[in-house]
Design goal:
Elements (H helix, E strand, L loop, with lengths): L1 H4 L5 H32 L6
């Protein structure tokens, strides 16, 4: 496993930063969709 985490020319560092950012962006999208669906079900307009 240590060999995999050794310096790989920079792409591994990009993954260490990009992966958590992508997960957070995905969670925000899911939360926004749920909030919009809930607002629509209650008859409230959603803000953009």
């Amino acid at each position: 496993m240590l060999h995999v985490l050794a310096h790989q020319g920079g792409w591994d560092e990009i993954l260490l930063v990009a992966t958590p950012m992508a997960v957070l962006a995905g969670l925000l999208l899911v939360a926004r969709r749920r909030a919009e669906q809930e607002a629509a079900a209650e008859g409230r307009p959603h803000d953009r």
